[in-house]
Amino acid sequence: KDEIRLEGVGLHTGEGIELRILPRHRGEGIVFLRTDSPKKVEIPANPWEVTATSFATIIGNNGTRISTVEHLMAALFCMELSNAVVEVQGPEVPIMDGSSLDFAKAIKEVGLEETGLPERYMAIKRPFKVEEQDKYIIARPYPGLKVRYVIEFPHPLIGRQEKELDIDPDTFLNTISPARTFGFLKDVKDLRSKGLARGGSLKNAIVLDSNGVLNPDGLRFKDEFVRHKILDFLGDLALLGRPVKGEFEVKKSGHTLNQRFIRELLSHKEAWELL
Ligand SMILES: [Zn+2]
Q1: How far apart are CA 84 and CA 21, in angstroms?
Q2: What are the tens digits of pLDDT across the range 227-237?
């Protein structure tokens, strides 16, 4: 097999969307292609194409946008697929079950073959930090890829959660990819009133009220929240466009700070090298 096909519902539109992933030569990176628009517009997955970061990472080119790319990008990045064409038959990547599990499983099962010269790594060479109030991201040199993440939410079920792990395809598949996105009931009502999250349901997100989880089956992991934040971070890191070697210490970040971090890291060329 030389392609991956998946289908699911768009979180914001609530409509069924088809997704196809095709192999590409090494060094060409990930490119998104919206196949429902009359003109097929290519949107390369890099930080310069990111147009919005509230609720999800959205990439766009000349008015054509694709939303919610981060869970798929995390799966591509961590399952070591750095070059692919992603065809999306609609304005957003299907939300699937709110995690990266279906994407990661499909990538592992199909095993798309990349061709061409071996991939070059982006290796962190010296410590680099961005911060904003009590949030920060620090990158340090490390022979593999490691993330240490801390979140703090004033909610009885979340509170402070902390997780540190080395990321490789199997660890990602088993430990991080099943962690679902989460939201608070009051915010869900807010989004709905703005016409967003129409496809959102307990099938594709953990929804919390002030006491606990509304999902009948509860959580997949006690620390599913911090695991999902790691997933989101890896999905944003994926926009660096190549495999990465480094250790990342992250506190309370979100898509907006993640994007600032990767843009600033790319422009601080003394902080990294290509190996
Ligand atoms: Zn997410």
Answers
A1: 7
A2: 999 999 999 99
Q: Which residues of 156-182 are buried (b: 16+ CB within 10 A; e: fewer)?
A: ebbeebebebebebeebbebbbbbbbb
Pair (165, 29) in one structural domain: no
Clarify whether residues 106 and 153 are in a common domain: no
Is 73 in the same domain as 128? no
**Ligand 1 centroid from CA 36, angstroms:** 24
42-94 pLDDT, tens digit each: 899 988 888 777 667 888 887 888 989 999 999 999 999 989 999 999 999 99
* Residue 116 counted as domain residue: no
pLDDT of residue 224: 97
- Map residue 99 onto helix, strand or coil: coil
Domain range enclosing 153:
122-274
Residue 228 known to be catalytic: no
Residues 80 and 158 in one domain: no
Q: In angstroms, what is the span from residue 181 Cα to ligand 1's centroid? A: 5
Summary mean pLDDT of the chain: 92
The sheet with strand 42-44 has its strands ordered as 4-9, 16-23, 84-88, 30-34, 42-44
Domain match, 35 and 60 both:
yes
* pLDDT, position 38: 79
- CATH number of the structural domain spanning residue 20: 3.30.230.20
- The CA distance from 275 to 271, in Å, is 13
Q: What is the pLDDT confidence band of residue 160, given thresholds at 50, 70 and 90? A: very high
Q: Which of 12, 25, 255, 268 is catalytic?
A: 255
The number of distinct structural domains making up the chain is: 2
* 265 DSSP 8-state letter: H
Residue 273: exposed, middle, or buried by beta-carbon count in 10 A (0-12, 13-18, 19+)? middle
pLDDT score for 18: 96
